Amino acid sequence: MAKFERHIFICTNQRPEGHPRGCCNQSGDGDLQRQFKMKLAQHGIAGSTVRANKAGCLDQCELGPTVVVYPDAVWYGHVTAADIDEIIESHIIGGRPVERLIIPDSLLNNTQQKVSADK
Amino acid sequence: MAKFERHIFICTNQRPEGHPRGCCNQSGDGDLQRQFKMKLAQHGIAGSTVRANKAGCLDQCELGPTVVVYPDAVWYGHVTAADIDEIIESHIIGGRPVERLIIPDSLLNNTQQKVSADK
User: Fold this and answer.
1) B82 to chain A nearest CA, in Å?
2) What is the tens place of the pLDDT at every residue in A66-109?
3) Residue from the list A12, A54, A105 with its beta carbon closest to the beta carbon of B2
4) Which of B2, B33, B68 is facing A108, going by the closest CB pair?
5) pTM across the whole model
């Protein structure tokens, strides 16, 4: 077949409550990734074209829950389930990234509280 | 700062022994990802430039252990710890993907035994 046209990585790393870096998956159940997967299916997007993939720590925890879409290398921060339809419809289908959720390059890998606990 | 220059996703999904699709992480300890991370550090590559990231199932299990490097979208199959230095030195540092390990597009998302058990 071919590479994925878009490969969506959703951070499912869990940190203890109150961790200084925050946590992308406070409940620990990876629900955001499951919802992305379900919504892609609802939009009729086959798994061999676009994949919503679980990821370990993406290392932008303070901005989480974080999602990165490749090969575009578009980073989204503070993503909730309510944002998924817009990301799929505007970005994945329409090719227009959702500006209001984008983490600017100036904030990527630029956090002050990094600790060595990332998994 | 900036986006990662290269973001390496290493499948750490574990399936039961004897699963028809095989498994990228038979021991379940995610050792390949840890070794990538350690080797990047040994090569003096900072975490904010290149990241060796745990990934959930990348869905190319029959070709595993699988690794995908973005934004290049270069897929590697049957990767072992013995291949890590070459991937880092040739591809990550030198910009020349390791041809002998590349999964051709014709094999990606083209397996016969896909089952719904991917996580």
Assistant:
1) 22
2) 999 999 999 999 999 999 999 999 999 999 999 999 999 999 99
3) A105
4) B2
5) 0.91
- From the list A53, A56, A108, the residue facing B3 with the nearest CB is A108
Q: Which tokens is A97 given? A: 């990234």
Assess A12–B contact: CB distance below 8 Å, yes or no.
yes
H or E stretch including A112? none
Q: What are phi and psi of A70, to 5 degrees?
A: -115, 155
Q: Reduce the DSSP state of residue B53 to 3 states and report it.
A: strand
Query: Token pair of B112, please?
Result: 């016969």
In which element (H, E) is residue B11 found? strand B6-11
Q: Which of B50, B70, B119 should we substitute to test contact with A (largest number of A Cβ atoms within 10 Å)?
A: B70
Per-residue pLDDT tens over the stretch A4-61: 999 999 999 888 888 888 888 888 788 999 999 999 999 999 778 999 999 999 999 9
